[in-house]
Every structure is written in structure tokens, then in C-alpha cells.
Automatic annotation (TrEMBL), chain A:
Belongs to the aspartate/ornithine carbamoyltransferase superfamily. ATCase family. Keywords: Pyrimidine biosynthesis, Transferase. This is Aspartate carbamoyltransferase. HAMAP family: Asp_carb_tr. It comes from the Bacteria. Residues 156-302 form the Aspartate/ornithine carbamoyltransferase Asp/Orn-binding domain. Residues 6-149 form the Aspartate/ornithine carbamoyltransferase carbamoyl-P binding domain. Its EC number is 2.1.3.2. Signal peptide: none annotated.
Automatic annotation (TrEMBL), chain B:
The lineage of its organism: Bacteria, Pseudomonadati, Bacteroidota, Sphingobacteriia, Sphingobacteriales. The keyword Transmembrane does not apply. Residues 5-166 form the Phosphoribosyltransferase domain. This is Bifunctional pyr operon transcriptional regulator/uracil phosphoribosyltransferase PyrR. It is an enzyme of class 2 (transferase). InterPro entries: PRTase-like, PRTase_dom, PyrR_bifunctional. Keywords: Glycosyltransferase, Transferase. NCBIfam families: PRK05205.1-5.
């Protein structure tokens, strides 16, 4: 069994069998991670470069831990402290890193399609750790994996993604992944933050948070990506919170018990209040735990192809 | 394809029972011993041996687990595609225990090397022994020897030894499969 793709650039390139293979492999890595010795020697002759042109805590740490738990050699690179600020191009930067015999590149970049571009010009295998507002495949995989863990299956589940859909790579990857697995997906947010043609992806659109929450089994609360917003999309953050923030009162008033997710980082008191984030309906920390297992599975399956 | 049955029926069962009695000679009531079957095919052997031991020693507590070695293999990235792992199910600590590893066929010995690596994640055993139902002699790639052997077989690399189990395949049988070259 092997993945149908040599790189992981987006969920778009994966079929249902690929996603299921990743989940089955991740199940096994999750048991490894719960042992006293959490390391396996699979990738001991593989070198991986983590190249981050954009800030990250969770994703970078999660990838680095996944790589180390697989015994890969890891080099880290942050654009802010590198020659990129001296005017080097992306291909030059990566080719220089590859000249030092690196097999795989995990890259985050502020521009959509950066990973796809790179995969056409360099020899290494590329794993996209987020490219602009385009895709964040490993986040979508770990989100769906967490839903599967909670409910046993993703198919038939109703998932609402709430917030800044327009600027979110998590939203697009999540929609593609959940649809592949047979879930129903709805997006919810202010009109200005919902892309105009989102319906063509086969998702429902709802502007009323309470209606959306009463419909769903799982609510994935996204952060407002102020750093990507070049103009004002809504009058004030306080007004956004009043209309689209999830608090305990709303959660308890719903007609059923839903599961709350968040890809992090959380802006407590904006899209989600502390008592919701820390409630037992929230699986935010399970998502983080599953992130390492999912990334181990992706790296293991990709590295296994290259002979 | 040419198939030669090496062992089946009652003789198969007698071999299993002999292995069980050899184990009892060395491990008494199994209070400090655990049995570990190596995935994917060694687990049936371990289950059968554990079941037989429970019949012979109804008073004792026989602990048995399944160990997957996929992530510890030495041929990763040397095959066409990555191997899909099986489940590891060991719900006891092997620290300070005597471990009897079991696999249906002992051939190159590489699986056993990987299994010894994999086992370390569950503690440091006092002693490790190896039980193989079939020992394909003179074909080792690394210096590994079994402590308990069901039958010994002389075979060449192009042949395969296939063990079937009553529980999963309908019958107990060990078959030597040879590929016949087409003229």
C-alpha cells in the first residue's frame, strides 16, 4: 500500500483511500506515542528540513516531534533569521539546503501555491505545512482524525466551520477532506468573510451561529486572521464576538451536545470563551496530540516511497 | 507451483504440544514469563501455544501479546512502497520478565532482529528466548538461532514456507511451496 502522491501539497491531491491509509497508519503511531519509549527507528536514514517562512508554534513543534519520534535527522530554518532577508529567491534557498543532502522539505509559506511551485523545481519530497490562504493538509487530516476518534466515523457527521473562512487555509483543506470522507459541511460567518463561490465546493452557508450550531455535530471555531486582512471586514472585534463568538451559555442552550474544535492559536474571548475551550465538549488538546501521530504517518508513508 | 506438505493434522498438534512441554520444562508455572507473537503470522502460533498451556496448566496465568515490527524493519525505503503496520497489543510490562518470542517461520533472522528492537519499547526483559514452528536451516542473514523448534526444513531462497491455522485458515498445515519455472 502506498499513497497516490509523492508530495503532500494539499488535500486536493489525496483520494479517499489515501486518507484512510494515513488514518490507519496514524492509529499505530498513536499507540507508539503512548508507550514509555515513544521512538521508532523507521526514518533513521532520512534527513528532513523544516522551512518556515511564516510564524508557527504548534505546526512546527508537531512536525519536529513527529520527525524525531521517527528517528529522522532534522534541520530547522526560520526565514526571519536567514538569507531570505538578503534577497535570495525561494528556489535558491531550497536548492542550497538540498545541496546539503536533505530528502524531504516541510514548508510553510505566506503565498498560496508555494509548495506546488517548489515541487516542480526541486528533487526533494515536499510537505505543505500551510501555504497562504490556500491549504493546510496535515491540519485537516488531524481534524478529521479527531472527529473519527470521537465518533468512530466521519461519514454522515455534520461539521460547521465558523469564522474567517475567506482567509483560512484550514477551512479549505477541512472542507475538501471532510467531503472526501462523506461528512456534511457548513460554513458560518459574516458575509464579508465567506468567499462568494464557496457553495461550489458543496458546502452549506449559514450566517446565524445558533442555527448553524443546532444543525451540527461538530463545530470547528476558526481564528480571525487579522494579519491577512488588508481592509476592515467587520465593524469591530467586539461585534464579531457578539455575533459569532461561542460561549458557555450558547453551548448549553443547544438542543444537543456538540463537539468543539479549534485549530489554534486560540484568541480566548474572541471566537471562543475560556470556559468553552476548557470544557469537556472541547477536543482542542486531543487535536494537538493527534497532530503528531498524523504527521508521523504522513512522513512515514511519503518517505517509504523514495528508494 | 508445486506444494509439498511438511506437517499437518495430528502430527501438527503433537508438535505444538511438544513445544508446550519444552516450555514448561524451562518456565515452570509461567509466573515470570510472557509469550509474544510477532505480527502478522506469529500471533496465531502464540495464541495456540498459550491456549494449550492454559489447558495443561489451568492454575497458571499465561500472559500473551502481539508485537508489530513494521517500524523497526531494516528494509524501509528499500522496497517499492511502505509496509502497512499491524496492531501491537501488549498490555503488560516486560521489564524483568522472561520473554518467549514466537514466529511461525524463522528464515533470514531479520524479523527477529527487528523484534528485539521493537520489544525494548516495553522494558528490559531478563531473558529473551525464541520459539519457531519452522526453522529454515542454513538460510540465516544474521546470527540468530531458535531455542525451541517445531520442525527443521532445508529449502532454497525461491521456495516459500506457508503455515495455515485451523482458527483462521480452516486447517493446520505447513506447506513448502516451490515456483515451477515455465519452459
Amino acid at each position: 500500500m502506498a499513497l497516490s502522491t509523492r508530495h503532500l501539497l494539499g488535500i486536493k491531491d489525496l483520494n479517499k483511500a489515501d486518507i484512510e491509509l494515513i488514518f490507519e497508519t496514524a492509529d499505530n503511531f498513536k499507540t507508539v506515542l503512548n508507550r514509555p519509549i515513544k521512538k521508532v527507528p523507521s526514518l533513521r536514514d532520512v534527513t528532513i528540513a523544516n522551512i518556515f517562512f511564516e510564524n508557527s508554534t504548534r505546526t512546527r513543534l508537531s512536525f519536529e516531534l513527529a520527525e524525531k519520534r521517527l528517528s529522522a535527522d532534522v534541520v530547522n530554518f526560520a526565514a526571519s533569521s536567514s538569507s531570505v532577508s538578503k534577497g535570495e529567491t525561494l528556489i535558491d534557498t531550497v536548492n542550497n539546503i538540498l545541496a546539503m543532502k536533505v530528502d524531504m522539505v516541510v514548508m510553510r509559506h505566506p503565498y498560496a501555491g508555494a509548495g506546488i511551485f517548489l515541487s516542480k523545481h526541486v528533487k526533494a519530497q515536499i510537505v505543505n505545512a500551510g501555504d497562504g490562504a490556500h491549504e493546510h493538509p496535515t491540519q485537516a487530516l488531524l481534524d478529521a482524525f479527531s472527529i473519527r476518534e470521537r465518533y468512530g466515523d466521519v461519514a454522515g457527521k455534520k461539521v460547521v466551520i465558523v469564522g474567517d473562512i475567506l482567509h483560512s487555509r484550514v477551512a479549505l483543506s477541512n472542507i475538501l477532506c471532510l467531503k472526501q470522507l462523506g461528512a456534511e459541511v457548513m460554513v458560518c460567518g459574516p458575509t464579508t468573510l465567506i468567499p462568494k463561490y464557496i457553495g461550489s465546493l458543496g458546502v452549506k452557508v449559514e450566517h446565524n451561529l445558533i442555527k448553524a450550531l443546532n444543525w451540527c455535530d461538530v463545530a470547528n471555531m476558526l481564528r480571525i486572521q487579522l494579519e491577512r486582512q488588508d481592509i476592515k471586514y467587520f465593524p469591530s472585534l467586539r461585534e464579531y464576538t457578539m455575533l459569532y463568538g461561542l460561549n458557555k451559555q450558547i453551548l448549553d442552550g443547544l438542543n444537543k451536545e456538540i463537539t468543539v474544535m479549534h485549530p489554534g492559536p486560540i484568541n480566548r474571548g474572541v471566537e471562543i470563551t475560556s470556559d468553552v475551550a476548557d470544557s469537556k465538549q472541547s477536543i482542542i488538546l486531543d487535536q494537538v496530540e493527534n497532530g503528531v501521530a498524523i504527521r508521523m504517518a504522513v512522513l512515514y508513508l511519503l518517505a517509504g516511497q523514495a528508494v | 507451483m508445486q506444494n509439498l506438505t511438511l506437517l499437518d493434522g495430528q502430527k501438527f498438534q503433537i508438535t505444538i504440544q511438544r513445544l508446550c512441554r519444552q516450555l514448561i520444562e524451562n518456565h515452570n508455572d509461567f509466573s515470570g514469563t510472557v509469550l509474544i507473537g510477532i505480527q502478522p503470522r506469529g500471533i496465531y502460533l502464540a495464541k495456540r501455544v498459550a491456549d494449550e498451556l492454559r489447558k495443561i496448566l489451568p492454575e497458571s496465568n499465561i500472559q500473551q501479546g502481539d508485537l508489530d515490527i513494521t517500524f523497526y524493519r531494516d528494509d524501509f525505503r528499500r522496497q517499492g512502497s511502505p509496509l502497512v503496520p499491524n496492531q501491537t497489543k501488549i498490555d503488560f510490562i516486560i521489564e524483568g520478565k522472561k520473554v518467549v518470542m514466537m514466529d511461525d517461520v524463522l528464515w533470514t533472522g531479520r524479523t527477529i532482529r527487528a523484534a528485539m528492537d521493537a520489544m525494548q519499547a516495553f522494558g528490559r526483559p531478563e531473558k529473551v528466548e525464541l520459539l519457531a514452528l519452522v526453522d529454515r536451516r542454513y538460510s540465516r542473514h544474521i546470527p540468530v538461532a531458535a531455542d525451541y523448534v517445531g520442525i527443521e526444513v532445508d529449502s532454497i531462497a525461491s521456495q516459500k514456507v506457508v503455515v495455515s491455522w485451523k482458527e483462521t485458515d480452516g486447517e493446520d498445515r505447513i506447506v513448502l511451496v516451490s515456483e515451477v519455472k515455465e519452459e
